[in-house]
Amino acid sequence: MFNLILFGPPGSGKGTQSEKLIEKYGWKHLSTGDLLRQEMKTETKLGREAKEFIQNGQLVPDSVVIGMIESALEANPNAKGFLFDGFPRTVAQAEALDRLLEQKQTAIHSVLFLHVNQDELIHRLIGRAKTSGRLDDADPEIQRRRQEVYRNETLPVAEYYQRYGKVEHVKGEGAVEDIFQLLCTEIDQKQ
Ligand code: AP5
Ligand code: MG
Fold first, then answer.
1. 3 pocket-lining for ligand 1 (C-beta < 6 Å)
2. pTM here?
């Protein structure tokens, strides 16, 4: 089993690269953003609660997303690995994930950190806003808040894994295919 976290700020290409990685490596893709948007679309209780946070660019409470990940892990007992995208986003989430994986006698094997400069991030999100229909893409103020929340609450997650020597830094600017090759090189060295 191989478990990977694709880490990086909003707009760094986590979703784009995840699609390509799961196709190549056959892992189960777990994006808490996608799972939450599905809950909002089907208007579940959880979806209605999450909407208040998402449309303001704030994080959904830890207990909610940890519960979602726990269910997803249980629902996929035979997965050959998990690719976490947009999770963990707080140190409390990272600690909870470690505990959940330990119960399954596995662990996080690698954290790949996509680095993209701030101007490029905003440029990408403005571009995506034209077609995504995402509540949190439409408003430049919310886009800025998402970047701020990332710096304050999510960046410490990279430090958390850095302590265990699990983080590899990858340049997330340039052609999608070139970045994909860089990620594959890192993964193939670890596997
Ligand atoms: P989430 O859905 O996770 O969004 P995010 O982290 O803000 O990141 P994005 O999905 O916006 O960006 P991405 O890195 O996937 O980039 P993408 O590939 O799409 O979270 C949304 C919200 O849900 C959060 O704000 C929070 O409220 C809540 N939430 C989710 N998880 C949570 C958690 N664990 N805890 C608490 N709350 C949580 O690319 C972006 C754009 O750039 C696309 O248009 C793409 O086509 C383009 N692009 C990609 N690569 C390139 C490239 N190389 N060159 C040019 N353009 C590119
Ligand atoms: Mg995404």
1. no
2. 0.98
